[in-house]
TrEMBL record:
Endpoints of the signal sequence: 1-20
Compositional bias per record (Polar residues), positions renumbered to this chain: 34-59
Low complexity bias: start-end ranges: 60-75
Keywords: Signal
Keyword Signal found: yes
Ranges of Basic and acidic residues composition bias in the record: 140-152
Cross-referenced PROSITE patterns: PROKAR_LIPOPROTEIN (PS51257)
Designated name of the protein: Lipoprotein SmpA/OmlA domain-containing protein
Source organism of this protein record: Vineibacter terrae
């Protein structure tokens, strides 16, 4: 009788002990410099969104570069649209009010739509000021080319300026 009760308990305890012996590979390695967190600098730097594949488009140009040179065949207004780092008021001034605002703590998602074009803007609070700013944005267009996405951004901006 005691063996029937004791045997499953011992097997369970042994399994737990064996699982604790092997650390996951990620925990056993020291952090490299690329994964270390760096404190935010006080100077205003221009950030580019991470490239997640062909479905995202960013039209950010490096400092000193001619924005019109980056848009091959597109208008200069399409190349000048850079949303990274903009605050809520600046974003509303540039693109107008969003079609939808979604709260996703700690951030927000604003969606803009026009025709076959959707712009998803991710806003997150600055650690020091607690004001929301654009961290990333994604353009989805029926014309799934870079030029189509630039035209989509330019169309959204021109519609807001016309109001």
């Amino acid at each position: 009788m005691i063996r029937k009760c004791l045997l499953p308990s011992l097997v369970g305890v042994n399994c737990l002990m064996l699982s604790a012996c092997g650390l996951p590979e990620m925990l056993s390695r020291p952090l490299s410099k690329s994964t270390a967190v760096r404190p935010a600098s006080s100077s205003a730097t221009q950030r580019k969104p991470p490239q997640t594949g062909a479905s995202t488009a960013s039209v950010a140009s490096p400092k000193g570069a001619d924005p019109a040179a980056g848009a091959k065949g597109a208008g200069s207004s399409a190349a000048s649209v850079n949303l990274i780092g903009l605050g809520e008021q600046e974003l509303r001034a540039k693109l107008g009010p969003p079609v939808t605002e979604e709260e996703r703590p700690p951030g927000k998602i604003w969606r803009y739509r026009t025709g076959g074009c959707t712009l998803n803007v991710s806003l997150y609070p600055d650690v020091q000021t607690r004001k929301f700013g654009t961290l990333t944005y994604e353009v989805k267009s029926d014309d799934d080319t870079d030029e189509g996405k630039r035209n989509c951004l330019a169309d959204l901006q021109s519609r807001a300026q016309a109001r």
